[in-house]
Structures are given as C-alpha cells and as structure tokens.
Amino acid sequence: MTSAPVPGATSHLTTTNVGATVATTFDRLILEPRRTDDSALRPHRTGARENEAAQSPSLMLLVLLAAAGIIVYAAFLLNPANRGDWLPYTLVIAAETILVVHALLAMWTVLSSGWNPRGFAFHDAQERLYDLAQILRDGTEGQPWRWQIHLDDRPVEVDVFITTYGEDLGTIRRTVTAALQMQGRHATWVLDDGRSDDVRDLAAELGARYVRRLSSGGAKAGNINHALTLARGEYFVVLDADFVPRPEFLHETVPFFAGPDVAFVQTPQTYGNYDNVISRGAGYMQAVFYRYVQPGRNRFNAAFCVGTNVIYRRAAVDAIGGIYTDSKSEDVWTSLMLHERGWRTVYIPTVLAVGDTPETVEAYTKQQLRWATGGFEIMLTHNPLSPKRNLTMDQRIAYFVTATHYLTGIAPFLLLLVPPLEIYLDLSPMDLKTTATTWALYYAGFYVLQILLAFYTLGSFRWEVLLLSAVSFPIYLRALVNAITRREQAWHVTGRKGAYRSPFAFMLPQVLVFQFLLLTTVVALWKTHTSGIFTLALAWNATNTVILGGFIVTAWREGRRARAEARAARRAEVARERAAAEPTRPAYREVTS
Fold first, then answer.
1. DSSP string, 289-326
2. Rounded Cα–Cα distance for residues 184 and 221 (Å)
3. Integer CA distances (angstroms), 586 to 240, 375, 493, 576, 583, in order
4. pTM greater than 0.90
5. How far apart are alpha carbons 389 and 402 in whole angstroms?
6. What is the DSSP string of 466-496?
7. Which residues make Cβ contacts (< 8 Å) with residue 564, sequence separation at least 6?
8. 336: closest CA among 291, 387, 378, 294?
9. pLDDT 10s digits, 291-316
C-alpha cells in the first residue's frame, strides 16, 4: 500500500539555515566548473582531503613495521625449540594463527588505502550534474532538492528508501526530514516493516511516500525488493532509519555512475552517539575498517555494501534477481553476487550520513550475532576460495577475510583457556629457553605494534575496543553454531526501542567465565605465595579476569541506569494519571460590598 506525498508538505524545508547553505551551494555550482587553474580546484576536491591520512608516510612506515613484527612473532611461536605441552600449545597456535593471518591481510589492504576512486569521469559528471539554466528558469536556486540530476546529459530518477522496523518516531522524523532536503531531485520512500499507523501519518506529514507490505519475508532485503516493484528510479539509496543523510549525499555519489559498470557506491557508517562504554567500543571497533580497510578494497574491486548509506544502480540489482534475501547479512551477500557477475563497486570514506551505534549490551549482542552469522554462512556455504566462484584472486582473498573475520573474536576464548591449564595442570604452551626480556620483545613485536597502529589510526588508545574484543567470544561462538546448524537468526534493528531487559540476560557465558577466572586467579595467588615464584600464567589470567570484570561492571552500571530511568518514567506516568483524574475545582471570586 502506498500513499502519495502531500502537496506543499515540503514547504517547511526552506528555513534560514538551509537557505544560507543552499545559497552557498548554488554559488559554488556556478563558480567551480569555471575555474581553469587546477591548483585552485584541488583543495575543493573531497577525494584529495579524505585520502591524506591514508597516504601518510608515517602510517605506511608503521604498517610495514607492524607487518615485520607479526612475521617475527610468528617465527618465534612456530620454532620447534620453543614448543611446550601439546594441548596449550595447540590452543595458542590455533588462536595466534587466526590473529596473525588476519593482521597481515589487514596490513596488505591498508597499504592500498591511498588510492582515490575519483577520476576524470567522476569530476566531469559531477560538474555537469545539474542544468544551471533550468534551475534559473524554474527559480529553484534556493531549493536544491528540486534540481534535476543529469548523467550523460540526460535526466535520471533517484529513489531514496528509508527502511524502518519499530524505531521511535523522533529518529524516523530526523532521517526523513534530512532525506527530503538532499540536493538533487529524488523521491523519498518510507519502507515500514513495523506496520505502524504513526509512521504512516508521519510520512504523510513530511511529504514522503509510504510503503507497508503484508508480510515480513526476507526481512530488510525483502522490504527493499518489495519497494523496487513500486519505484521506477534508475538508482536507489538505502538508509537505515537512524542514519541521517547530509544534503550533499547524492552530489557526492551519483557521478560515479558515469562508469557503466558501477553497481553501487558505499559510504561509511559514522556514529554520533559515543555516550557510553558500549557505544564507544562498538563504534571505534569499526573506525579503522571504514577509514582504511574499505578504501583499500577499492584497489581490488572488492569493497562491499554495509546495508545503509549506499546507492545502487537498479539495473545491477535486477541482474542478480534483487537484494539477496537468504541471509540476514544481505549487504555482503548482495555485494558478492554483484562481483561474481563482473560489476564494479566503489567505496568513498566521505561521511555523508551519521547514525547510531549500539548503546546497550542487548543491542550490541544482537547486532554482532547477526553480522557474524552472515559472515560464517559465506565461509561454510559459499567459500570465496572455491574455483567455482567467478572472482579475481584479490577478490577471493578479500571475501575470505570477510567470511572468516569473526574467528578473530573466537581466538580470545582459546587464549583464555591457556593460563588455567598451567595453573591447575602445570601444562605450559611454551618451553622457553630465552630470558623474559627476549620473550617480551617477541611479544611486543606483535601486540604492542598493533596497539600503536590502532593508536595512530584512531588518534588515541581506545580501551573500550579492547574490552569488547576480549569479551565478545560467546556471541561469535553462537553465530558459528547458528551457521553450521542453519539455524534461523531473528532480525533485530540497532535503533529499535523496546521493553527494558537486563544486560545480564545476554551475557551469562561471560559471567560464568569471569567467575571461573576469578577463582583461578585466587588459586594462582595461593600457589605463588607458597612457592615464592611469580608466573606468567598468573599475570595473564589476572589480566583476563580484570577485563571480564570491567565488562560486568559496565553491564551493572547500564542496568542501574536503565532501572532508574524506568522508575522515573513510571513516576511521571503516575503523576500524569493523577493530574488527569483530579476533579476541576470551580473558581470563586470574592465579592465585597
């Protein structure tokens, strides 16, 4: 069911701030194409600015040093002379092999991240995107959302799909309002799988088209495919309900489609709600990926879609039968299908939409479970390294990294088991003939340099990332089991609001492991006290205990805060009910004679 835009509903967009912005935009539209001095043009090129960090000689040197440190550390581990007892040694080798291989492949990709996908075709198309004479004739200089978009000197239609599934109205309002304001003529659609009459009324109020389907088959992918049966644009944007687009979104992405083989243009997921430990950790975990890894994949034509902040060529999606619906990670699977068909994809690290990262243990758990299950499904059912796949070698490696990435989240669990084996059973992973200083140097070659690299790319040491990386192994183990057993994973939306549930309902494995490690640390301290020998196993186990304990404290604070907010909401509701039930007293006026 669809409803057309309400006439005149977009009149609210012409505010003072928007008017000032579009005046500047129109001035630049007139002036910039007429510049002939390339040195004057260059500072205004977005691509030049966003690739400066990736091209930094300091970053390249640090990456090379980190790669060398990884190789030296791997040689140290694999040296037969250093091998200890088989069980803990096997655990260490299995975990470290996963981490080392992924770290090296990440270094390889980061070294390619300085490549700029914007060429002459892009800049030429961008400068000819609008017909200035038509804008002047129509008198729409101050209404950029009405400027007709052109490619190859012909007008093109663009649809903007905003997918919703139970998000609060304030969140949807912000996104829809911003989408309507985007520069370039387009149709904005609200695809409501939550079947909310309030969302329908909101779309009508703002002037957006509204779509509600009868079933929820295919989850988000099915929602988009259903909308494609109604929309007719040659290109379509997908935005999650909590990602607010910037006005220049279409201006910075549509010109890439001057290349006839471009299937989609992906922009980063950037967040504006770094308000607590969970949201900061979840957001910073992805920062390096979006700043350096995805840009590096451009070099290999292996950049993949991340589900939002993306614009597709409809013909490419139609060629593969629509958005992939047989997985909850429809974005990566759709990208893989497109690459196998020979399409090209583009990623730009330009921030063109800002959204919300998970703020609670529940939201983080459900998000990571969905993402990891999709990755493992590729690994188990559609191995990119198989000769059956129509991919280049670079693409095979890139998708193999994607499919196996969440194994790096299981590796910390294997390493957690090593210290207790030594503390309880005297089984040691390494039979070291070297001094503690020499061992520390080998260890620093891998881990310390990795921390320095993360420090450089993120601007500071983000301990929240270390915390979440170390405690998320139950999520990824469950995702692996889901993928192996083909268990259906329910769809959950990051920004969806619902009834409060204690964070401890989603972290029972972490609590049990923490209790075991705490007991093990006490046993190790007692053994150290009786023997007088301080062991690496004690230090290692105590560190793991502190990290898991930090996560439990974080969850406890989250639960306390949520309960306080719930009590305050209940008190406010009771007060409103009492005020409504209180009888109105008649007003009397004193009369004096």
1. IIIIIHHHHHTTT-----SSSEEEEHHHHHHTTSS--S
2. 26
3. 52, 68, 50, 21, 9
4. no
5. 15
6. HHHHHH-HHHHHHHHHHHHHTPPPPP--TTB
7. none
8. 378
9. 889 999 999 999 999 999 999 999 99
